[in-house]
């Protein structure tokens, strides 16, 4: 079957079959996440008040947990009842069943395509246009990273397991996969006294949009303003149309913002190119048009939408993609904006996440939605401290996902392989998390669709962005000089110039390494930032 149809079917199955578990009584669900769930009722037999000894049906209230990823994560983070967490985890990681067959067909379809194109595997086919240049270079990089992070990840795992043992009062109890998010959230909240409601009070959505305007004005000397739409131009009344306008250059491009969750909408957060920029003539340029799609929740009890810090980072991440497109100036659409080597595409977006963490940036737009108070510096330090607490565990998870991706779309054996056993084997080798029989993370991992054999690109971008931030942006992140360098040496070229040349031209030596005929990131800045660089790892990173 056509790979595009299989990708669509895989994605639709994820939306149509998110899974659910019903929990009774309602008291098993913490109050702060009840608004995410659907109240349900069941009949129970109770003793009649009028005449003891006779029975009548009573209604008992409970909640239905739809185990789509965002709701599932909130349940795993905040629910004290381990059995509820376990039920939700098992269901959420075992659906949609139909994707077992779809993924097998997609692997075969992509492998056939690769062979038609003269390649041994789909991974090899994808790498031809990437910096890495071969699957061997990628796998070598991933195994190197896995070894670097293992010792710290093991320490973090033991810390989390020991907390569970303290809380449970049992020294032999194991850490289960449905425990990690709950106990790490507990430790972060305890260490930094974080209250999610207090954090969100400084990130009202209108103020966060002001943050995007701040970036455009400070870095690029331009305005980012709402503009009217023609009748029928918008696909939904919620959609905003924004324009980046430079006082000397005029309009630079247009961006649609579709911010809120609604039924039937694309479920994730993503950037879509509607029209690529291109040179029409010596005097005329076709302006780029992009759309940013999010699924922020409207609260039932407030007219002001407030984001958590992770959602703010996502907003800035996707805006980084948009800026890459809106500020590129290429002769051809095919090279415009994010149409670059796959393992370079996530670099600008990862870089702009740093702006969502820097107090010098946040203090200029993050204000309390009712009092107008500027976000306290201590709170920002706490947010960043909490974020970094289990950085090795998160990095190890991303390495594991990347290795699964490389293996599934790598060379195929003559005997078809069982994807479940591949994932279980890699998890045992490269993760501390137990593999639970009957769970299948790979059947709802939508990055297989857009980043098949390319998920490692996020790790490349993490390393490149860490180096750019350290060498170029950290000293004065909002300076026009920084913005000019980002625009003229990185963003404006899109895919019209080799990414390794762009990166080296931007920050000099020490951002890329050449390895077995391919290019990998220098990991030094990334590991330093995560406090993972010791003498043993220092010589490997360069």
TrEMBL record:
GO terms for cellular component: mitochondrion. Its cofactor is Zn(2+). Binds 1 zinc ion. Gene3D superfamilies: Collagenase (Catalytic Domain) (3.40.390.10), Neurolysin, domain 3 (1.10.1370.10). Keywords: Hydrolase, Metal-binding, Metalloprotease, Mitochondrion, Protease, Transit peptide, Zinc. Residues 76-509 form the Peptidase M3A/M3B catalytic domain. GO terms for biological process: peptide metabolic process; proteolysis. It is found in: Mitochondrion. The keyword Zinc applies. This is Peptidase M3A/M3B catalytic domain-containing protein.
